[in-house]
Amino acid sequence: MPFPVVASLALVLTGQIYSAPLQFPADTIARPEQSSSFCRLAKAETTTNNTLDKSERAKTGKLRPGRAEKNRPIALSKEAMAMLAEVSRAAGHKVLPGRQVLLETTKGKIVLAMFDQDSPKTTANFEKLVKKGFYDGTPFHRVIAGFVAQGGDPQGTGAGGPGYELPFEKNSLKHLAGSVAMARAQTLDSAGSQFFINLEPQPRLNQQYDVAGKPTGGYVVFGQVIAGWEVVRKLNKTMDQANNPLPGVQLDKILHAKLLD
Fold first, then answer.
1. 97: domain CATH number?
2. Bridge-partner residues for 215, per DSSP?
3. For 172-214, what is each residue's pLDDT tens digit?
4. How many independent structural domains does the chain possess?
């Protein structure tokens, strides 16, 4: 699969070809300020740890003791609800969160809200893979400061996938901080299992269309981080701004992914 880089959409790296969201030069990469709701969530979460009691966890949107083990969804914090309101404002319509997915990682727990009404086929594929245990043990192989944290490759190289490709799904969801989207190769209909989380807003990754309304570029957003933003920020950076691997970095992994019903 092609590995998009600065001047081209493909680069062979150590004999493999990566699948990844579009990358831009370090001096032109989009770096708008993070949303106020994300700043509030990050500030709240960085003042807490895994010893939080139930009332503190309810305030911060962190997982409450016993709830995740029972596969129950978390209650949305005020900060999470503010983030989802920003998603709706950016999309131009009310975006309703669907099922929640818990990612238990080597850095801690991350909870994603799925947007099944806006991206039904993409979310259905992601949830199917979660149920199969496909993501268990897979690394975040491509984490670039100020850009994305990408995972979902069973090979751990950026070249793997589920053995099939998804059709590109049109929607109006924008690439905000914490947006979850599908990585793909150069062609639009080439996503599979690899996904990425935006570490900052990335408007250049938004879907693009020609005058006839046919999609010509961009990446399909299908979810949003609603808890564990501090965990996302702690994921080990694996590449520099020019997509060069950083030496001696231990890849963080998804230990287990599951649906919260």
1. 2.40.100.10
2. 209
3. 999 999 999 999 999 999 999 999 999 999 999 999 999 999 9
4. 1
Query: Model pTM?
Result: 0.80
Q: Which of 237, 197, 37, 199 is closest to 113 using CA atoms?
A: 197
Q: Domain range for residue 151?
A: 12-260
Examine residue 176 and state whether it is found in any structural domain, yes or no: yes
Is 57 within a domain?
A: yes
